[in-house]
Amino acid sequence: MDAGEYGMGLSAFSLVPLNDCPRNAYYMDGVFAAADGRPFVRSNMICVFERYAGEIGWRHYDVNNKVRESRPKVTLVTRMAASVGNYDYIIDWEFQMDGVIRIKVGLTGMLMVKGTPLQNMNQVLPHENTSGTLVSENVIGVLHDHFVTFYLDMDVDGPVNSFVKVNLVKEETSPGESPRKSYLRTKRHVARSEREAQIKLKLYDPSEFHVVNPEKKSRVGNPSGYKVVPGATAASLLDINDPPQVRGAFTNNQGSCNREEGHCGVVHTRVPSHSMPRGFPNYAHCVGKL
Ligand SMILES: [Cu+2]
């Protein structure tokens, strides 16, 4: 939507102090370009705040030595809200003290609905496709999906970054080798092409996705990098040649990298329309540069 017909940034409007963000938030204005190129300001476009939600940042209890330590979790949050038609997208970037960066997309506003003569679900004929469920008399919440995509230029410790798929695989022991039948090991694969960097998530073929700088090593020789962790994701069920799918081909995979443009990454989230998300259950994450 950022570069599409609506414009996520252009659809962003002023936040409501105290209601959209907590009372310790600092608000920042946004500068936009009008159709004639002139700049104009919208106030309170982004809020920045520290969140202390009573959660644990780190803790450990050493049973043997009876040593107990705990750190509170304090997170720096930046938030904006884009009102695109009937929907309001709330986009949070969270920066944790342990280095984790979390992107959350919340969806609120008004439901996507259509009118119907139906007043109760008991009036639906056995094989009738209503394209959703009644949310009120004569109103159907229409089944559809939202895919949210992010592009990030990671530049981890410099511009020379690699995208690494770390596949978790099952190894089987030889007969008599061990009472164990199987164990886990990792297989690293550095993507050499955009095609190799495409991600299709599979529950029984799990992978981690790392963006590393192979030229910057830690004291013990590991490359510096970030792990990209997909949140709630969904694959498109449409036929790959269906016109909406051709137009939205970025949903063919759950992640990808673009070598020429020097950035990469999508992982999508799907939001069924008639079940309004509570809070921020839907996450989108990003992958970095090849
Ligand atoms: Cu929708």
TrEMBL record:
The keyword Ligase appears for this protein: no
Gene3D superfamilies: Copper amine oxidase, catalytic domain
GO-annotated molecular function: copper ion binding; primary methylamine oxidase activity; quinone binding
Post-translational modification as stated in the protein's UniProt record: Topaquinone (TPQ) is generated by copper-dependent autoxidation of a specific tyrosyl residue.
Keywords carried by this UniProt record: Copper, Metal-binding, Oxidoreductase, TPQ
Domain Copper amine oxidase catalytic intervals: 1-254
Enzyme Commission code: 1.4.3.-
SUPFAM superfamilies documented for this protein: Amine oxidase catalytic domain
Gene Ontology biological process terms, A to Z: amine metabolic process
Keyword presence, Disulfide bond: no
CC cofactor: Cu cation
Domain of life of the source: Eukaryota
Segments passing through the bilayer: none
Co-factor binding details: Contains 1 topaquinone per subunit.
Active site: D2 (proton acceptor), Y87 (schiff-base intermediate with substrate)
Protein family: Belongs to the copper/topaquinone oxidase family.
Protein name from the UniProt record: Amine oxidase
Organism: Stephania yunnanensis
